[in-house]
């Protein structure tokens, strides 16, 4: 896998600054100290720094360009005076080191190693053929310094590349873990909703099956035709109940599955009262009228209970010290039917620094899915006073039609 360094502006600025500086110094030294023709000095210096710029985007071509330019500069250089660094000029050493470290970081460590060895070989050959009259000490020192810096550049580039790879893998693993955790939380919430709806529907269908099957015994005066219809109804309910249990039975595979009866409106006052131990105040302003409750199914009551429960739990977790108010109201819809409004509003927390909307969980998503399953809607928003409000609206039209 190839690693691409981030093409951030400061990288290009640094590379451009190095290239401009090297070009100015290298062309000047080549034409003066190393006695190269001005045209050659300018052209080779430009070619050398072009490799320094190219290696940041095209590492293979950048290494090749700088290596060829440096080798030609070494071959054409002459030392006046003998004390000048030779056969490899200092500017060429700097250009090669920059090119090698970036090239190795880009994954071209083998090309960088070959490039450094090639420049060292050319320099040794030039020193052997041309520099016979010069003291061997400065030549050996010059080539040794270059080899040391080149090896350090390649090694540093490999280490930097490894660090980038490791950091990228850790970042990807963290992202995958977060996505997996989020999906698992969503699946767990949906599984819980499905399990609860399975329990409620199974209970209702069991009652239908038992009542239909026992109708001919509880009402001995009914005709045989009516009794047969009750038997067919019982058989249909029994078949549907078996199919549903076979389909959703896997939801009972976990040992933590809830076995107790599911809560409803009757348990709502205790839920709100239990929040007093954490909240400063929590009240249930308005209960649903009895005639409306008779039109509600257990699934509706369970949904209302879970919405209030999750809202109060969020207040406890994210708004410590605030007051929460729960209100249920029954409203007539324009035209026909009616709807139930569940409002949970809390004041600003006592510790403003600790208040905030936590987006890491899926409590609000779970409430939305529960309410949407009943063709309702749920809205959440911060209040002007610094608190938070949850409003759920559940239509009762469908249930009224089946009553």
UniProtKB/TrEMBL annotation:
Keyword Transferase part of the UniProt annotation: yes
Record-annotated membrane-spanning stretches: 12-32, 38-55, 62-80, 86-105, 112-133, 139-164
Catalytic activity: ATP + protein L-histidine = ADP + protein N-phospho-L-histidine
A cellular component term, taken from the record's GO annotations: membrane
Signal transduction histidine kinase subgroup 3 dimerisation and phosphoacceptor domain ranges (all copies): 189-254
UniProt xrefs under Pfam families: HisKA_3
EC id: 2.7.13.3
Alphabetic keyword roster: ATP-binding, Kinase, Membrane, Nucleotide-binding, Phosphoprotein, Transferase, Transmembrane, Transmembrane helix, Two-component regulatory system
Keyword ATP-binding listed: yes
Protein name listed in UniProt: histidine kinase
Origin species: Leucobacter viscericola
């Amino acid at each position: 896998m190839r690693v691409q360094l981030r093409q951030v502006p400061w990288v290009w600025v640094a590379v451009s600054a190095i290239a401009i500086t090297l070009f100015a110094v290298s062309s000047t030294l080549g034409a003066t100290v190393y006695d190269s023709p001005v045209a050659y000095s300018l052209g080779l210096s430009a070619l050398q720094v072009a490799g320094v710029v190219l290696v940041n985007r095209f590492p293979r071509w950048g290494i090749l360009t700088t290596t060829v330019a440096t080798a030609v500069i070494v071959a054409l250089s002459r030392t006046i005076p003998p004390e000048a660094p030779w056969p490899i000029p200092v500017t060429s050493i700097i250009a090669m080191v920059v090119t090698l470290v970036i090239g190795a970081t880009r994954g071209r460590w083998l090309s960088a190693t070959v490039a450094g060895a090639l420049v060292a070989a050319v320099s040794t050959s030039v020193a052997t053929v041309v520099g016979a009259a010069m003291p061997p000490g400065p030549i050996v020192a010059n080539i040794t310094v270059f080899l040391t810096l080149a090896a350090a550049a390649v090694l540093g580039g490999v280490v930097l590349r490894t660090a980038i790879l490791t950091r990228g893998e850790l970042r990807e693993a963290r992202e995958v873990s977060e996505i997996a955790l989020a999906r698992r939380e969503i699946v767990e919430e949906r599984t819980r909703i499905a399990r609860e709806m399975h329990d409620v529907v199974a209970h209702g269908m069991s009652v239908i099956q038992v009542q239909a099957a026992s109708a001919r015994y509880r009402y001995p005066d009914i005709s045989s035709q009516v009794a047969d219809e009750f038997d067919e109804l019982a058989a249909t309910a029994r078949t549907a109940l078996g199919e549903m249990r076979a389909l959703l039975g896997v939801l009972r595979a976990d040992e933590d599955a809830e076995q107790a009866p599911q809560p409803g409106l009757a348990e709502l006052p205790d839920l709100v009262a239990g929040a007093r131990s954490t909240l400063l105040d929590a009240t249930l302003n308005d209960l649903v009228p009895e005639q409306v409750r008779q039109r509600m199914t257990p699934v509706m009551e369970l949904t209302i209970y879970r919405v209030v429960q999750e809202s109060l739990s969020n207040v406890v977790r994210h708004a410590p010290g605030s007051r929460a108010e729960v209100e249920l109201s029954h409203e007539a819809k324009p035209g026909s039917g009616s709807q139930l409004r569940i409002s949970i509003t809390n004041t600003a927390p006592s510790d403003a620094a600790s208040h905030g909307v936590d987006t890491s969980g899926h409590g609000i998503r779970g409430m939305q899915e529960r309410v949407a399953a009943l063709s309702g809607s749920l809205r959440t928003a911060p209040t002007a006073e610094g608190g938070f409000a949850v409003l759920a609206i559940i239509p009762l039209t469908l249930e009224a039609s089946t009553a």
